[in-house]
Fold:
Amino acid sequence: MGEGWAMRKMWVGAGVGAALGMGFVMLLVVGVYVTAGNLAGGTGGGSKKLAKGSVPAAYQPLVQKWGNACPAINPALLASQLYQESRFNPRAQSHAAAQGIAQFIPGTWATHGVDGDGDGDRDVWDPNDAIPSAALYDCSLASYVKDVPGDPAENMLAAYNAGPYAVIKYQGVPPYEETQNYVKTIMTLAESFAAPTTRVDPSEQAAGAIAYAQKKLGTPYLWGGNGTADQGGRFDCSGLTKAAYESVGIKLPRVANDQYNAGPHPGRDELLPGDLVFFSDDLTNSRAIRHVGMYVGGGYMINAPRPGAVIRFDPIDTPDYFGATRVTEDGAKALPTTV
Structure:
């Protein structure tokens, strides 16, 4: 709900009569508070589970509960929206005045913010209020387009981006490039927050990425290194993995904790060569990841470990092993580049 959101929300009242616009706003308000009342007693929390540590521990129960506020959303979908908006930063503020972990603009918060924790106030900076408000706003949009054919989650996201009138008019996701890309991005990104329920498909580009990394064995570590000529071809941990996948046409974010969201998460016993493996001092929070390597099989990875060392093979089974990501092209493309 950041600055792009502020522009997208100009559909309210645009192209429709004032009475119809006011009716829609009132419908959303009623939907928000009815749903809030239904969930206040602690309902929600369906079967869709979050991947290990993908949401910071402080917010995981909120996302799990409110992500089941209605059938059109789920915890992974809600997590992907919060991640894209703020990287789970409750103090985030854009130059367009979007505020908090869910990046509500003040006017929207005034209408749709709820007292999620029942403490008597509605505080946009408090995730206990902002996360429920984001979920309930999604549900209100979903309710408005509930009779439209197709996937309810995709229709809800399309309504968020282009407005419910466009979704109703086209009886599904409108043929707008921005809206179609938005829906695909959020739905794809949600896969990196969901605990896999089946075997994760292997990456077609993994072999090429491994081949690139193997050619760098013995190269000295450089903090912030991207392998450029002016850096003597040296890398740090995430610089190496980024360059390896870029060599096969997949552009990853620069930092390790964002690379974690570049695809689904295979279990330790499902690892395949090319998977990214991550390490952290806080095993409950992917935002605290501090190291990444590339799995090569047999319990080993190629990595750029630390200053004074060289790119080398190291075992992955250490106490700080966090988890793994199977990089996908769509997953990498879905990652936000700015906050």
Summary: Residues 47 and 299 are 32 Å apart (CA to CA). The chain has 13 helices and five strands. Confidence is low (pLDDT under 50) at residues 2-46.
